[in-house]
Amino acid sequence: MKTYSEDNKKTASLYLIVQAIAEDASLSVDEAAVADYFKTYVGVDDYSDYEETYGTSYLKLSALKQAVMDYLAEHATLA
User: Fold this and answer.
1) How many Å from the N-terminal Cα to the C-terminal Cα in the chain?
2) What does each of the 79 residues of the chain score in pLDDT, given as a tens digit?
3) Which of 2, 25, 52, 58 has the fewest Cβ atoms surrounding its Cβ within 10 A?
4) C-beta separation of 64 from 22 below 8 A
5) Is the overall model pTM greater than 0.90, yes or no?
6) What is the span of the domain harbouring residue 13?
7) Distance from C-alpha of 14 to C-alpha of 47, rounded to nearest angstrom
8) pLDDT value at position 73?
9) 47 by DSSP, 3-state: which?
C-alpha cells in the first residue's frame, strides 16, 4: 500500500508541475489538440473509446502534458 501512495504522490506532483508550466507559458489544449495528440502519439484517428473509458478531462490532461514537454524541448537551454 505504501508503494502506491508514493507513486500517487509522484504522479500528482508531476501533473501540478505540468499545470504550472502550462499556465506560465499560456499553453492550453482544445478538442483539435486532443485529436492531434491521439493521431500523432497513439496512432488513432478515432479516440472515442478512450474518451468513453477515461473521460474528456483526462484526455485533455494527456495532451497538455505532451504540449508542455514539447514546449520544454523547444525552449530548453543546454548548459
Assistant:
1) 40
2) 677 888 999 999 999 999 999 999 999 999 999 999 999 999 999 999 999 999 999 999 999 999 999 999 999 998 8
3) 2
4) yes
5) no
6) 2-75
7) 24
8) 96
9) coil
Residue with cell 502534458: 65
Long-range Cβ pairs for the range 31-40 (8 Å, 24+): 33/60, 33/63, 33/67, 34/59, 34/60, 34/62, 34/63, 36/63, 37/62, 37/63, 37/66
H or E segment to which residue 20 belongs: helix 2-24
| Residue of 53, 39, 54, 31 lying closest to 64 (CA atoms) | 31
Q: What is the pLDDT of residue 60?
A: 97
- The x, y and z cell numbers of residue 73, run together, are 524541448
Rounded CA gap, 54 and 63, in Å?
A: 13
φ and ψ at residue 54, rounded to 5 degrees: -105, -25
Amino acid at 58: Y
